[in-house]
Amino acid sequence: ETGVTQTPRHLVMGMTNKKSLKCEQHLGHNAMYWYKQSAKKPLELMFVYNFKEQTENNSVPSRFSPECPNSSHLFLHLHTLQPEDSALYLCASSLGTGFNEKLFFGSGTQLSVL
Amino acid sequence: QQQVKQSPQSLIVQKGGISIINCAYENTAFDYFPWYQQFPGKGPALLIAIRPDVSEKKEGRFTISFNKSAKQFSLHIMDSQPGDSATYFCAASPSGSRLTFGEGTQLTVNP
Predict the structure, then answer these.
(1) What are phi and psi of B102, to 5 degrees?
(2) pLDDT of A58-93, one tens digit each?
């Protein structure tokens, strides 16, 4: 898969650790997103970036801190997480931030918080 | 109002059979209805999408049926194959807002 790449694929961290998730898209898109996927629950949109600027934050707790240095890279910095934050974190990109844009997802980072 | 209810949660179909996944919504402002397919270890990928001005859209073995009055839409997979085994998500969005996803259906197609 070369469109949207996420690292690491798996991450185990303690509640006091600080870690970062990385996403890179090679599609020339201008918008990037973070989603949270928990078992048997709908995908939850966390953040939206357009041309490096954050345009949406869906009431995400401050222990999740996104960073978008350019249109191709997106990070999610994690600190003082809770066990209920364990989930698959998906990065996505789209050409623009129009509401019916086709989303291209990465394979995700499976996060376990102990 | 923003919810999309998806059923069944899991589905087992024999090879060659028809797989049917249903979604229902309340918000009459929804005007875009995509389906995403997710294989194990991969992210979701757009499979097919429909707008409410048509009642059906077909792409190969995949068909979306849309019933505006009942506020329901469904995905039909004809001649289901083991390679179709995946999790399927319906979604919907109103004009000017983001997608709301269903809870997903895990489809298993037995050989």
Answers:
(1) -80, 180
(2) 899 999 999 999 999 999 999 999 999 999 999 999
Cβ-based contacts of B105 with chain A (< 8 Å):
none
Instruction: Yes or no: say if B44 and B36 are a contact pair by the CB < 8 Å rule.
Output: yes
What pLDDT, in 10s, does the model give residues B28-57? Answer: 889 899 999 999 999 999 999 999 889 999
Test A90 with B43 for CB contact under 8 angstroms: yes
How many interchain CB pairs under 8 A, A with B? 47
Secondary structure (3-state) at B54: coil
Q: Which residue of B has its CA nearest to A39?
A: B103
Mind giving me the DSSP string for A35-97?
EEE-TTS--EEEEEEETTEEEEE-S--TTEEEEEEETTEEEEEEES--GGG-EEEEEEEESS-
